[in-house]
Amino acid sequence: MKKKMGIFSFACCEGCQLQILDLGSSLLKLLGVADITYFKLAQEKNIFDKFDIAIIEGAISNKKELEELKQIRAASKYLVAIGACAVSGGIPSLIIEKTRKKTFGVDKFVKVDYHIRGCPIDKEEFEKIIIGFLVDKKEPEINHPVCVECNEKEIQCLFKKGLPCLGPVTAAGCKAICPESNTPCEACRGLIKDANIASVVNEFKKMGLSEKEILDKLYKFNPIDRKEAEKCI
Ligand code: SF4
Ligand code: SF4
Ligand code: SF4
């Protein structure tokens, strides 16, 4: 019997769902082994029943969304959070300080079986992780920094050039696309566990950044880590 998947969206720009639609022929292959029974962005008829995999995009910003999220969790074998909004609050938590206090990633409320990181997600990574879940195989989550991918691709280090790059404390998996195009990493994939934030803060201070600039950078995609960041300032 084909597996059932549901794709749900909360507070966000829907850019991660567009990445899924952009999978093209790979999406058709995926549909050969699984039915997407709920995907409001892409289809008119949607059935809320049991799901082998629920895919959650977007942050939780009110009680109605929270209730819906709990229902999805109760109806699903696996729940996968996709994109910075679902993982940690992301862009919706940035809009205004007031919203920031009320907008969270989904694992603040329910068990999450996997976090597919990024803003937006990487569609090939999405495909690989979801195919794994369809055969009950969970890939380990990445916990090494973007710097590793820079080294693999022999990208010249921006940090060493005096630019405030968050790559040393950010979870890899994006193939270091920002440093590759000469742009410092902004940690859209979230911080690694046990990240040495104090060391990065110290270096950023030496580069001439103010405390506010440093906190805003660290906090941009990682709102729930602000307390941690404040301790390092
Ligand atoms: S993670 Fe980024 S691209 Fe994805 S829904 Fe949120 S804001 Fe949009
Ligand atoms: S550019 Fe940034 S991510 Fe790349 S090696 Fe330097 S500090 Fe690390
Ligand atoms: S380099 Fe940093 S900001 Fe850019 S995609 Fe990777 S994790 Fe996100």
Keywords:
13% strand, Rossmann fold, 37% helix, 233 residues
Number of domains: 2
Q: Which compounds are bound in this model?
A: iron/sulfur cluster
Shape: globular
- CATH architecture label name of the largest domain: 3-Layer(aba) Sandwich
Largest sheet: 5 strands, parallel
What is the overall number of helices? 11
User: How many angstroms does the end-to-end distance come to?
Assistant: 54 Å
Briefly, what CATH class of the largest domain?
Alpha Beta
Poorly predicted regions: none
Q: Say what the CATH topology of the largest domain is.
A: Rossmann fold
- Strand tally: 5
- Structural category is alpha/beta
Radius of gyration, in Å, reads 18 Å
Q: What is the CATH H-level superfamily of the largest domain?
A: NADH:ubiquinone oxidoreductase-like, 20kDa subunit
Strand order of the largest sheet: 2-1-3-4-5
